[in-house]
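Protein modeling request. Please complete all fields; requests missing the sequence field cannot be processed.
Requester role: graduate student
Desired output: 3D structure, token encoding
Chains: 1
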Amino acid sequence: MDARQRQLLDAAITVLGSRGTRHLTHRAVDDQAGLPTGSTSNRYRTREALLAGVLTRILDLETSGWHQLAGNLHHIDPDTFTTTLGVLVHHLATTGRTLTLARLAIFAEAAHQPALQQQIAHGQRDLAAWATPLLAALGARHPATALRLLLALVDGLLNNQLANPDPAFDPTTAIDTVLPAILSAAPAASQPA
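Delivered output (193 residues):
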């Protein structure tokens, strides 16, 4: 991805995360990026192409955040993991709020667009490829199940904080409380062991 694409997609994330999907237009992205009218449509001819580009950028940024989390875990133990994940979730709900809101908006769009669903599934497979061994190292009985539960916890914490901001938001306590159950969870009956 070149610098101009990043500039356009970051501007689109800002539009999406601050104003919602109804306001995501090529012109709004041009304005947000401070570029001449037509710059976005030259790179992303359709709204679907723009959404796909935005999703790619969001997944890249999220992957970077998760890799940073893993990179901070030199000594893997539940306490260090809980604290580090708590810091990441807090960041996503505060400083990274616009990115997180853009992610929620585009995931809602994906409910009606199979191409976006496929991109999300690919991103989830990439995340699972390195996060599942991390959870195994933490002692998860069934790391794939633990990852699904952990992501559900993170999404729930973020959704609640974004919808009803609490100035004293500290996700670490919730993560610390629930992590032992996540690590000991068995797979659902329909999932392979």
